[in-house]
Write a structure and sequence with these properties.
The complex is a heterodimer. Chain A folds into two domains: 194 residues, Orthogonal Bundle (MetI-like fold); 240 residues, MetI-like (MetI-like fold). In chain A, helix 14 packs across helix 23. Chain A is mostly helical. In chain A, 75% of the residues lie in helices and 0% in strands. In chain B, strands 1, 2, 3, 4, 5, 6, 7, 8, 9 and 10 form a ten-stranded mixed beta sheet that branches. The chains are: A mainly alpha, B alpha/beta. Chains A and B meet through helix 12, helix 15, helix 17, helix 18 and helix 20 of A and helix 1, strand 2, helix 3, helix 8 and helix 15 of B.
């Protein structure tokens, strides 16, 4: 470490936050101790191997597809002059605003045998039964992987594009001077330099996929999360469910470690990066093909689902629904704002701690605080109750002993539990984004405090934070959008009469009445869009 | 790093803001049932009694939440679908017995717990829907395993509580070994991997993907009320299985009082209201279920499907075989 910061309160807070975020996970692990081995051997002998196989295949497919969607899109936008590149630059972020469970519902409905597309085909060609023609089955692992990738690839796109754009062009020029063709220098220089960003984003995408339940359920694909729900809700064996969730955590741990291995020793910064753009001039045909590729992603991941929703809104929505949604929308925004602000602040503390502090174990707080992303929302919600329930009991017991009226469940029964759960769940996103940003800052700048003769804190404010501005913004935005969309944790932890947009939409979907929930769904998407637009403006006016 | 210091402050502010000052006249409900079903009933109750009803709706984890909350739980009343959930709550010691003249008068003995910890509110049949193109058929659940229906049957996930309860009733009748064989044969007859909801299966019949499906009775009525889904429902007959032997499998929706209910009197008032004739009539009309209170008629539409014989198997027995049913479903790899 170049700097010699040994500030103890900084160290304290880093560990405090990291351990607080770990707490529900520890509770979950402890809860798995009494798991019955009978149930395990039954599951192992029957369905579990297939669940695990599905989980692995789905995770790999989603990673592969997100890579194939996100990285070329990032390269096309940042390195070339494709048609409408300026618009596509931000349009490609829009699928982020779509909740995966919603897109899953819309797409399975659309491409199902009984759905409008196949009905139309049958009517046109006068086919009578499924034996008369071939049509891909949407309710398969492949179908699920495509749809999940369509809404998740923007993570890969955004982080990779940022990495491409922040690269030092002098390096590129050097490679060209040394005789590389444009193609060679892209594949041997530009792409490898973006590896940390690609690795972080693919890890995020895979984690989100593995922890998902609602989406894969629409595709009738059974994964490890299916087993978790079966053991808990079916067999009523909460300990076994915890144990399975812990197994899922191992998968994630593997991904995290693999991702960090992939990044190890991959630091290339220059003290004065020259980020002046020199775009590759494509032929007209190439410009159009590149543009069509990007437009396809925007269409499939955003426009088509939104059009489907709008059609429903036009048919079913009325003024009354809108009024009812105002309170609901306010709840969603409040929770998402708290979550994004706190998660980003914690991520900053932890990431700067890792970079600047002299503590020997400085890398652990960042690492352990990200595990929550791997836990399915409902399991995490249960862990929150298991963590804060006893605390609430202690508070009430003490209050009663002191002669006050018992305050009730002020931790586990309020918005506190929801926000805490969200921070546990989404810290990985904030951490990943901010860490990737910090790695772009040249190490030599860490010497600033010494050379400026100021404290580390003041150097952070003067040097690091301004350089991290866009990473902070991206982190805040990503967490906000995810929190707007989150469903399973809020469903279980919410207080009385408390609805968010996602719980409202879910209730209508679960009764096959998405038509009436379409307006709420559109609002989730719109609020998800707001930060994307703000971010885009920020970028355009440096 | 001023921001860091703000975050705990925000949390504290959140806490304070979320401390609801308890109003005196209210009752708190944890509901597995969807809000649009129960809200009209609650509105009527509030109008009549002046007691405000607070609701949390969730399908997953209510029992666990209740357990964790323990004696400080704000929940008064629990509303569930499916008998197994009521039994689970009872077995975990989360319920208390309640009694009133109204409850005793309204609910027949087979529709409540022997110790009065839970009461059924409505019953629903697990029907077999069949394509009209097949003509009228007298079905038994056992027939779903018949080879002549190969590739013609559709169903939702076998692990759905409604199907698990049906399998449990098969175990009660035939034993585990025969039920497993039955499940394996039914699986072999499926037109597609189990997926979607009960309504989606009827849609698939309408689209000629299959001929037969399993579905709860009230979906038929609700589909007929829906402009788009009416078309699907009109393509099928609703059949009450096993009419010449044990009768059709019936499940319930029900209610119970939480063990630590803080508003006991109000909770009892709500329970009494839910079994009253007007409330039972509302259940029948808004969701097409069969009211449990004798003398309250099902809706006209439901009545038009005809009288039927219900399986007299005690509800507790269904709950007792639930775990065995799940194990068999796994063994048959029914959903895979």
């Amino acid at each position: 470490m170049l700097t010699g910061n040994k500030n103890t309160s900084w160290k304290f807070f880093s560990w405090f936050f990291a351990l607080a975020l770990m707490l529900p996970i520890v509770v979950m692990l402890l809860g798995s101790i009494n798991a019955s081995s009978d149930l395990f051997s039954h599951l192992w002998a029957t369905v579990l191997p297939e669940y695990i196989r599905n989980t692995v295949i789905l995770g790999l497919l989603v990673a592969l597809l997100s890579f194939c969607f996100g990285v070329p899109a990032a390269a096309l936008i940042s390195q070339t002059n494709i048609v409408m590149g300026k618009q596509l630059r931000w349009l490609l972020m829009l699928p982020l605003a779509m909740p995966a469970y919603l897109v899953a519902y819309l797409y399975t409905d659309l491409f199902d045998y009984a759905g409008p597309v196949q009905r139309l085909l049958r009517a046109w060609f006068d086919w009578q039964s499924p034996n008369d023609y071939y049509f891909f089955d949407i309710r398969t692992i492949g179908g699920a992987a495509v749809v999940i990738s369509l809404v998740m690839f923007p993570y890969v796109y955004m982080l990779t594009r940022t990495a491409f754009e922040q690269q030092d062009r002098n390096l590129l020029r050097a490679s060209r001077l040394l005789g590389c063709t444009e193609r060679q220098s892209f594949f041997q220089m530009t792409l490898p330099l973006a590896r940390p960003a690609i690795a972080v984003s693919l890890a995020l995408v895979t984690m989100e996929t593995l922890a998902d339940f609602a989406t894969v359920q629409y595709f009738a694909v059974s994964t490890l999360t299916t087993a978790i729900y079966d053991t808990w809700l079916g067999y009523s064996d909460f300990a076994a469910a915890n144990a399975l969730a812990s197994v899922l955590m191992l998968f994630i741990l593997f991904i995290v470690v693999a991702e960090q291995r992939a990044r190890a020793g991959q630091r290339h910064q220059s003290s004065r990066p020259n980020t002046q753009h020199q775009r590759k001039q494509l032929s007209v045909a190439q410009q159009i093909i590149g543009s069509i590729f990007c437009w396809f992603l925007v269409f499939a991941g955003f426009l088509l689902p939104v059009i489907l929703l709008l059609v429903m809104v036009i048919d079913y929505a009325d003024y009354q629904q809108l009024v009812a949604l105002i309170v609901t929308g306010k709840n969603s925004i409040e929770i998402a704002t708290y979550t994004a602000t706190i998660a980003t602040s914690i991520a900053l503390i932890l990431a700067l701690f890792q970079r600047l502090h002299q503590s020997r174990l400085r890398m652990f707080p960042v690492q352990i605080s990200g595990f929550g992303y791997a836990i399915p929302g409902t399991v995490l919600a249960m862990a929150m109750l298991a963590t804060f329930g006893p605390l609430d009991h202690a508070i009430n017991d003490v209050a009663k002993a002191l002669g006050f009226t018992a305050p009730g469940l002020i931790l586990s029964g309020t918005v506190f539990a929801i926000v805490f759960a969200y921070i546990v769940r989404f810290s990985a996103i904030a951490n990943g984004t901010i860490s990737a940003g910090i790695e772009q800052i040249p190490k030599s700048l860490d010497l600033a405090p010494a050379s400026l003769g100021v404290t580390t804190l003041s150097a952070i404010f003067r040097v690091h934070l301004p350089l991290l501005k866009s990473s902070i913004l991206v982190a805040w935005l990503l967490v906000f959008v995810e929190a707007m969309k989150e469903l399973p944790a809020v469903l279980l932890l919410r207080p009385f009469n408390f609805e968010t947009l996602s719980t409202q939409v879910y209730q209508l979907i679960s009764d096959e009445r998405l038509e009436q929930g379409a307006l709420g769904a559109i609002l989730i998407v719109l609020f998800g869009l707001l930060p994307i637009i703000i971010l885009n403006r920020q970028k355009d006016t440096p | 790093m001023n921001k860091i210091w703000l975050s705990p402050l925000v949390l504290v502010a959140l806490l304070v803001a979320s401390l609801n000052v308890a109003a005196t006249d209210e009752v708190n409900v944890y509901s597995y049932r969807q809000p649009f079903l129960v809200e009209p009933l609650f509105n009527e109750f509030t109008k009549a009694s002046g007691i405000k009803v607070n609701v949390v709706f969730a399908k997953k984890g209510m029992a666990e939440r209740l357990t964790r909350e323990g004696e400080y739980s704000p929940a008064d009343i629990l509303l569930t679908t499916d008998i197994s959930r009521l039994i689970e709550l009872k077995d975990n010691g989360l319920l208390q017995s309640t009694q009133s003249a109204e409850l005793s008068a309204a609910i027949p003995a087979q529709f409540k717990a022997a110790d009065n910890t839970w009461y059924a509110l409505t019953t629903r049949v697990r029907n077999i829907y069949s394509a009209k193109r097949l003509g009228k058929i007298d079905f038994n659940y056992e027939d779903l395993a018949d080879e002549k229906y190969q590739g013609r049957i559709c169903t939702r996930s076998g692990k759905h509580p409604y199907n698990v309860a049906l399998v449990a009733s098969m175990i009660a009748e035939h034993g585990e070994a025969d039920t497993l064989t039955w499940l394996q044969k039914v699986k072999a007859n499926l037109a597609r991997k189990p997926q979607g909801s009960d309504r989606a299966q009827v849609q698939a019949i309408h689209q000629n993907l299959c001929d037969i499906s399993l579905g709860n009775s009230y979906y038929f009525g609700n589909m007929l009320k829906d402009e788009k889904q009416k078309l699907w429902a009109e393509a099928v007959y609703i059949n009450f299985p096993n009419q010449n032997n044990r009768g059709a499998h019936v499940n319930i929706s029900g209610m119970a009082m939480a063990k630590y209910a803080p508003n006991k009197a109000n909770a009892l008032a709500l329970m009494n209201f839910l079994v009253s004739a007007p409330a039972q009539k509302m259940y029948a009309e808004t969701n097409m279920e069969y009211p449990v209170r004798p003398g309250v008629k099902p809706s006209k539409l439901v009545a038009a499907w005809g009288e039927f014989k219900a399986d007299s198997l005690p509800l507790e027995t269904i709950a007792k075989h639930r775990k065995a049913a799940l194990i068999l479903l796994d063994k048959a790899k029914f959903d895979l």
